[in-house]
Design brief:
The chain has two domains: 310 residues, no CATH class; 123 residues, no CATH class. It is α/β, with parallel strands linked by helices. The protein contains 24 helices and five strands. Helices cover 59% and strands 6% of the residues. The protein is globular. Helix 21 links the parallel strand 1 and strand 2. It has a five-stranded mixed sheet. The longest helix has 25 residues. Helix 12 packs across helix 13.
Length: 473
């Protein structure tokens, strides 16, 4: 929270704010939960990054606490609970995702809560907790479809290694009905719009997202999403779930992790999709780690763990949080390592440049000029910073923006941001390059160097042209 006001909005946050202005039960790329939160926090404190990111910070705190509770369910003592909670608190995944308003922040909380509930049910046979699980799953599904993968993997894990009698519980199926009912408005929206989420997923699998990586990196990246220094803790947890006779009742959780690994490798999922499972693996591995510290060369082993925690804290905070001054970022590998950090830099400068191009036009032309952007980050930035600079509303063909419609028919001139000229030539008779975006701090993020075109002579009406600009991904 101390650092949440530094740098600026992430491109996704700008999009959530716009989606919050167009509230619906669904969007082509996500359910409604996070845009709704963006709308609520903007209404409470408009323009405040600290307020916008407060829910994510609270979600991070909850993940830390539930990780400790998971450790207790898996027979971890107080020291093990502190270790697992501290490890997830210092993890690159938690600090990076929960510093921003993001679907990942709440997806990680939903996964951790669901894993805690199923572990508790398996240990205590308190079947009524499936009802609570249904509510958590339903709300989680209104934030991210990834909850489906967790639920399916857990079902498969129980079916493979047991205890299979759980699947016959009426409480379990009642919880499932609750989850589906809560999720159903989003499913209806997707069905009415031709299931665009599937096209978005295919684009991500093909590498269309800025944070996408090659499939072969999915497993190696698991080693750094908590910390390479603490990876032995969660790896020990995975091994323990299969080998410890005292946790035989929980073996299905370990099997679910392996199922998800295969699924995301095959489908091209992002590395952090699987990383939301790491809380339970840290919980399982913390007690063996504490036991290891008390064996053999105790002082050396405790020193090694202390060094691992210090190096984790230093590395993750430096690479995931906005600590350094902006004018030093380009001298570091931070943006190359952490794509999302770069996407919080430069938006006001970019919009100011667009405004200068707009202001160079005669007053009469400005009234018939619209702004068209190649992605939702650019459009969201124009809508956030543009009104104070006299800019009109922005339009974009990416994801939700495309569904909100094209520029008005009265727009005879377009300032087109971020497009290749060839893309524009099919729809406009003339396009002149006016400038290229510059964040003024030499950070090479996705928008740096993007062209700003001055386009006229629309070749057909928007009913014909607008479908050409749709981008799902």
């Amino acid at each position: 929270m101390v650092l949440s006001g530094r740098y600026g909005y992430h491109r996704d946050e700008l999009y959530y704010l716009e989606a919050g202005r167009h509230l619906a039960w669904g969007y082509p790329d996500q359910p409604p939960f996070t845009p709704l939160l963006a709308r609520l926090m903007s209404n409470i404190a408009s323009g405040s990054l600290v307020a916008l990111r407060l829910p994510s910070a609270l979600a991070a705190a909850a993940v830390i606490v539930v990780t400790a509770l998971l450790t207790r369910e898996l027979k971890g003592g107080q020291a093990a609970q502190v270790l697992s909670a501290g490890s997830i608190a210092l993890s690159a995944l938690l600090l990076g995702a929960d510093h921003l308003l993001s679907t990942t922040a709440f997806n990680m909380l939903a996964w951790t809560l669901l894993l805690w509930l199923i572990v508790r049910v398996l240990r205590t046979q308190e079947q009524y907790l499936w009802i609570v699980g249904g509510v958590v799953a339903g709300i989680g599904l209104l934030n991210s479809d990834l909850v489906v993968f967790l639920i399916a993997a857990l079902f498969v894990g129980v079916a493979i290694v047991g205890p299979r009698h759980v699947l016959a519980s009426r409480w379990l199926w009642a919880g499932g009905v609750i989850a589906v009912v809560l999720w159903s408005p989003y499913l209806v929206w997707q069905a009415r719009h031709g299931w665009p989420q599937l096209a978005v997923s295919r684009s991500i699998a093909a590498g269309g997202s800025g944070s996408s990586t090659s499939r072969y990196l999915l497993l190696p990246e698991q080693l750094v999403l908590v910390s390479p220094y603490l990876a032995p803790v969660w790896i020990a947890g995975l091994v323990r779930l299969f080998r410890d006779p005292a946790l035989r009742w929980c073996r299905a959780v370990g099997a679910a992790y392996l199922v998800l690994t295969v699924v995301f490798l095959v489908t091209g999922g992002k590395a952090y999709y699987l990383a939301s499972f790491l809380s339970v693996l840290l919980a399982a591995g913390s007690q063996p780690t504490i036991d290891w510290l008390g064996q053999g060369r105790v002082r050396l082993r405790r020193g090694a763990l202390a060094v691992a925690l210090v190096l984790t804290a230093a590395g993750t905070t430096l690479f995931t949080l906005p600590i350094l001054p902006l004018d030093l970022i380009h001298r570091t590998p931070i943006v190359a390592v952490n794509y999302d950090e770069g996407e919080t830099i430069g938006w006001p400068a970019f919009v100011a440049q667009v405004a200068r191009v707009f202001d160079q036009s005669p007053i009469l032309q400005r009234s018939t000029t619209s702004i068209l952007t190649s992605n939702y980050g650019e459009a969201g930035a124009v809508d956030r910073y543009g009104p104070s600079l006299g800019l009109p509303e922005a339009f974009s063909g990416q994801n939700g923006f495309w569904y909100w419609g094209p520029p008005p028919a009265s727009a005879h001139r377009l300032l087109a941001i971020g497009f290749d000229k060839g893309k524009l030539a099919a729809s406009f008779g003339q396009c002149q390059l006016r400038t290229r975006l510059n964040n003024n701090v030499q950070v090479h993020n996705q928008e740096q160097g993007a062209p700003v075109w001055d386009c006229t002579q629309l070749r057909a009406n928007w009913a014909v042209v607008w479908p050409r600009f749709q981008v799902l991904g």
